[in-house]
Write a structure and sequence with these properties.
This is Pirin N-terminal domain-containing protein. It comes from Phlebiopsis gigantea (strain 11061_1 CR5-6) (White-rot fungus). InterPro entries: Pirin (IPR012093), Pirin_N_dom (IPR003829), RmlC-like_jellyroll (IPR014710), RmlC_Cupin_sf (IPR011051). Belongs to the pirin family. The protein is mainly β. It has a single domain, classed as Jelly Rolls (Sandwich). It has 1 helix and 22 strands. Strand 2 and strand 3 form a beta hairpin.
Length: about 260
């Protein structure tokens, strides 16, 4: 099956260093605006954020977005206008369906920096009632296999409860998978939709220059691409096409994969 890769190199992402916040933007966000990278299907934001201890995003509002946070390291303190208050740790995923409007804050908790991915998608319908969900996926569930951590409402295994086992529900045509791939290990994924987006998380440390750290090779339909930490790739193909992801480096690669309508 025909598949096309369009690389999104780490060093070409939007980037800002505010001292308390070091961030990369895959898509246009805040002061970074690029008409070639506005969204991809329903996927609107992938920000790779590092927030310094005792700092964070003060209370602010959102509406008509599905907003989720994937915790890589450290602890993230969340509070919102729905009354939710908690500290999220590695392996935790929180999903806020902002709907008609919410206000929330996100801050580093404790003495360490928090590194997390802030992801937004466009909802498939407007005017939804705001909701909040949390899920936990320990490393063992992601080691050398795909863990489905977000999936559309109504999908198999999706439970619309604040806390539950299985993927967090999202009101978008989007499924999100995560994995920790050991060196020399290959994983496969069969596309359910025609589009996908793949990203290698920058786990070895903040690096606004040339990517280093983990190295993976992505293959599909005769296409091949080598990626390092912070790199991503737009994938255009056909439902049923098979992607292969091989860790060619010497350290574990933490990766995420969006299957998009």
């Amino acid at each position: 099956m025909s598949v096309k890769f369009v690389p999104r190199p780490s060093q070409e992402r939007g980037h800002a260093d505010h001292d308390w916040l070091k961030t990369f933007h895959t898509f246009s966000f805040a002061m970074y605006q690029d008409l070639e990278h506005m969204h991809y299907g329903p996927l609107r934001v992938i920000n790779e954020d590092r927030v310094a201890p005792h700092t964070g995003f003060g209370t602010h509002g959102h509406r008509e977005f599905e907003i989720f946070s994937y915790i890589v390291s450290g602890e993230l303190e969340h509070g919102d206008s729905m009354g939710n208050r908690e500290v999220l740790k590695r392996g935790d995923l929180q999903m806020t369906s902002a709907g008609t409007g919410i206000r929330h804050s996100e801050k580093a908790h404790g003495q360490k920096e928090v590194h997390f991915l802030q992801i937004w998608s466009l909802p498939s319908q407007s005017g939804l009632k705001p909701q909040y969900f949390t899920r936990h996926f320990p490393d063992a569930e992601k080691t050398d296999k795909w863990a489905k951590i977000v999936a559309p409402v109504g999908s198999d295994g999706v439970v619309e409860k604040r806390e539950a086992v299985g993927p967090a529900p999202v009101h978008s045509g989007l499924s999100l998978f995560a994995s920790l791939i050991s060196p020399s290990t290959t994983l496969k994924h069969t596309l359910v939709q025609r589009k996908a987006y793949f990203h290698v998380i920058q786990t070895s440390g903040y690096n606004p220059g040339k990517p280093s750290g983990a190295q993976v090779k992505l293959s599909a339909g005769g296409e091949e691409l080598v990626l390092r930490e912070g790199d991503g790739v737009y994938i255009m193909g056909e439902a049923g096409a098979t992607l292969e992801v091989k860790n060619e480096g010497e350290k574990v690669a933490e990766v995420i994969l969006f299957d998009l309508e």
